[in-house]
From TrEMBL:
MF annotations from Gene Ontology: cysteine desulfurase activity; iron-sulfur cluster binding; metal ion binding; transaminase activity
Annotated EC: 2.8.1.7
Record-annotated Aminotransferase class V domain positions: 10-376
Family: Belongs to the class-V pyridoxal-phosphate-dependent aminotransferase family. NifS/IscS subfamily.
Organism: Candidatus Lucifugimonas marina
Keyword Nuclease on entry: no
UniProt keywords, alphabetically: Aminotransferase, Iron, Iron-sulfur, Metal-binding, Pyridoxal phosphate, Transferase
Names of required cofactors: pyridoxal 5'-phosphate
PROSITE patterns: AA_TRANSFER_CLASS_5
Catalytic reactions of this protein: (sulfur carrier)-H + L-cysteine = (sulfur carrier)-SH + L-alanine
Protein name: cysteine desulfurase
Keyword Metal-binding tagged: yes
């Protein structure tokens, strides 16, 4: 990052990312001279329609899918809701069972809980201490009436990578044996730009993505829907996105998310060594300088961009405020609940005690993170924790 004294050492990229200049540059014409409605027939509309079509092609190339299987939405949460509620609406509650995990983002857990209130059934499969789901245990939860399995590709709080391909293979085999027809969805919002998103390799029928996690615009999302999968739309109207998501297309943002995803994928493999080095420096530095700390997650099956630590005897909020005072932005877990002092449901599912869970801090690295940034946060963490230890408890 820049060396100016008033800069922010931004280490919360799992919450959101700044838009890349290349993405903004590609978006700008669609706010002005290419402002047409893609559904109209005249030339200005044709320019807008071309922008949407080009973005759809870029996304399909990254996913290894057909362009007709790409649906543009208003964000990752909408993509998750469209999957869960859109599939459920095509069956009765009495014949509807969902299998998911205990560490999903709330954008999956809360829609499933809403369906449970309507009479649908759900099973939340647990994880081990590293945040890993056992594919056999997951498949064992499949029933004859299970219509959806949803498992996130990369956890947003601890960075653990799930073996989605194996979970899908075993779950579909279990469903077939029982005479069912299960569909597999993955929330891949945190996986974009970090792991492969090839849908056939993962064995998924639906996949959710978000623009603002990959240096694209906020309020943009993607839902991959395998050909033949039928969804009841959440938003009815003009029938855009092949009747799956009505509403005049947000052309500039669609162009932006397409470009952002293509750029993220093109740089993915080349960035692994750098992120591994930075992450190792961070994890080893925390262990050395703060021996009482604990690392949360897997050391062998994780994305290096996300690291989660617990510090005994403190709560995450004062640690974050202390870091912010020193010009460092981090998180206490999911950004959607970072203002809450409730312990993370992800950490609790991993067996972390509530006392340790409330003292957790997530540090997530980005394109501009340097070794100097890591050194700075290591020193700041030690200083903040030392200060907190001297404060009398209330």
């Amino acid at each position: 990052m820049t060396s100016s004294e008033d800069r922010i050492n931004y280490l919360d990229h799992a919450a959101t990312t700044p838009m890349r200049s290349e993405v903004l540059e590609k978006m700008l014409p669609y706010f002005t001279e290419k402002f047409g409605n893609p559904s109209s027939l005249y030339s200005i509309a044709g320019e807008a329609r071309y922008g949407v079509d080009e973005a759809r092609e870029l996304v399909a190339q990254v996913l290894g899918s057909r362009t007709s299987e790409v649906v543009f939405t208003g964000g990752g949460s909408e993509s998750n809701n469209l999957t869960i509620k859109g599939l459920a609406a095509r069956r009765t509650p009495a014949s509807g069972h969902i299998v998911t995990t205990a560490i999903e983002h709330h954008a999956v857990i809360h829609p499933v809980e809403q369906l449970e209130k309507l009479g649908y059934d759900a099973t939340y499969v647990g994880v081990d201490a590293s945040g890993q789901v056992d594919p056999d245990e997951f498949a064992a939860a499949v029933r004859a009436d299970t219509f959806l399995a949803s498992v996130m590709l990369v956890n947003n709080e601890v960075g653990t990578i799930q073996d989605v391909a194996e979970i899908s293979r075993k779950s579909k085999a279990a469903s077939k044996k029982l005479g069912g027809n299960i569909l597999v969805h993955t929330d891949a919002v945190q996986g974009a730009g970090k792991v492969s998103l090839k849908v056939d390799e993962l064995g998924v029928d639906l996949m959710s993505l978000s623009g603002h996690k990959i240096y694209g615009p906020k309020g943009t999302g993607i839902l991959y829907v395998r050909r033949g999968v039928e969804l009841e739309p959440l938003i009815a109207g003009g029938g855009q996105e092949r009747q799956r998501r009505s509403g005049t297309e947000n052309v500039a943002s669609i162009v932006g998310i397409g470009e952002a995803l293509a750029l993220a994928e093109s740089e993915r493999l080349g960035s692994r060594d750098r992120f591994d080095s930075l992450s190792n420096k961070l994890i080893e530095g925390v262990a050395e300088r703060i021996p009482a700390s604990s690392f949360n997650g897997s050391r062998s099956s994780r994305v290096p961009e996300i690291a989660n630590f617990s510090f005994p005897g403190v709560e995450g909020e004062p640690v974050l405020l202390g870091l912010d005072f020193k010009g460092i932005a981090a998180s206490s877990g999911s950004a959607c609940s970072s203002a809450s002092l409730e312990p993370s449901h992800v950490l609790l599912a991993m067996g972390v005690s509530p006392e340790l869970a409330v003292g957790s801090v997530r540090i997530s690295l980005g394109r501009e993170t340097t070794e100097a940034d890591i050194e700075e946060v290591l020193g700041a963490l030690k200083s903040v924790l030392d200060q907190l230890a001297t404060f009398p408890s209330a």
